[in-house]
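Comment thread on ticket #2218

A.B. wrote:
> Attaching the input chain for the structure job we discussed in standup.
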Amino acid sequence: MAILSDRDILYGIQSGRIGISDYNERSLTPNGYDLRVAEISIDGKVYNEGTVKVPPKTMFFVSTIERVRMADDVCGNLWLRTSWIRKGTISAFGMVDAGFEGTLTLGSYNSSDKELEIPIGERYCQLVFQTMTSASEKSYEKRSGHYQGQTGVTLAPVNKK
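C.D. wrote:
> Ran it. Output below, let me know if you need it in another format.
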């Protein structure tokens, strides 16, 4: 596998192999793309405007503004931006599978003893695109696709196959 550079990401978007809705030039990094906060869910309550205050020692979920679309030979890793790590945020992210399309739901935890303020629209995590050695035989959409096409914070599967 190879990590795509900013040049490769832009070419992937232009050629249609990669899709990023609401693309923002500021979010492009040398080796990835920063995804921004569309909404935050805390204890089942969803916030989608202003600055959200996450209480100390609280789990929360973030949905991305951007919808991403991956080709059958492109996957991605998600990395929390270090500015959030420095504030006590802990997150565990999965792989963005080849063939996935939709917004992303990200689980996080405010491990600090202080309230965490997260502005809607702020850059939250980086998506690092990787090319696979060959296209998948069955992409995410065809293999399971439980969250294919999701929008907003999504905790239960969208598609039950």
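A.B. wrote:
> Thanks. Noting for the ticket: Helices lie at 6-15, 82-85, 140-143.
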